Amino acid sequence: MSTGELTMKITNKMLKNLIMEVLEEGQGSLPKYNEIIKILQGENANVDTIAVMSGQNPHGEQAPEDMNVQLKTSLESTLREMGLEYIRIGGRFWGQWEQSVLILNPKSEDQMEKLNRDFGQWGFVYGKKFPIDQEKSFMVFTLYQVDYNNKMGYFPAKQEDGTPFKQTGEVLTNDNIKQQGIEDYSFVGKGRQRPKKKFGFDFN
Q1: Which of 5, 23, 57, 85 is the least crowded, having the fewest Cβ atoms under 10 Å away?
Q2: pTM of the model
Q3: What residue segments make up the domains of the chain, in order of their start?
Q4: What pLDDT, on the 0 to 100 scale, is given for residue 73?
Q5: Cα distances (Å, whole numbers) of residue 96 to 58, 61, 62, 154
Q6: Where does the pLDDT of residue 190 fall: very low under 50, low under 70, confident under 90, or very high at 90 and above?
C-alpha cells in the first residue's frame, strides 16, 4: 500500500468517525460545530460538495409531528441506501423548525433535485469547492428551488420581489446571525427554543 493510499484511508476513517460521533450525539454536538464550519469553508480535504436539505414540512407547510418524524427517518434511510454520508443538523426555514441534514459529497445538483422532489421539498442549498491555490480552497453556495411546474428541473431561487438570491462563498457563523438578526438558519445543539450554535449562508 502506498503512502497516499494509507493517508486516504486514514482521513476517510477520520471523516466517518466524525459523522458517526455527530449522529450518536444527535443535535447536542457542540464540539462538532467548528468541524462543520471547516467543511463549509472548504478546509476539509475529504469534502468537495455539500447539500443542505430536510425531508420535513413538504412544500414549506407545517406537517404533523408524527409525519415529520417519519419523513426524517425515511430521508436518512434513503441517504444511506444511496451511499451518501450526512450529518444531522437542525434548521429554521420560513419560521418553521425542521430536522435537517448536511449531506457530504453529493454527486450533483441533479441528484439533489430528484431527492428534494421525492420528498416534496421547496428547495436546497448546494455547495461546490473551488481551489484558491495548492493548499487552500473555498466553497460557493447556491440556493436552488425545485421547479414543480415541470416533471424535472430546478433553478436559482428568487426573493419575493423577483430578485435572484446571489451565490455566495460567505458562511455565516453564530455571531453573524445574532448580530444581523437573521431568522432562517441551520444549527447544531439541542432545543428549538434555544439553538446552541447557528450557521447559514449570506444569499442576500
Answers
A1: 5
A2: 0.83
A3: 3-201
A4: 97
A5: 11, 8, 7, 23
A6: low
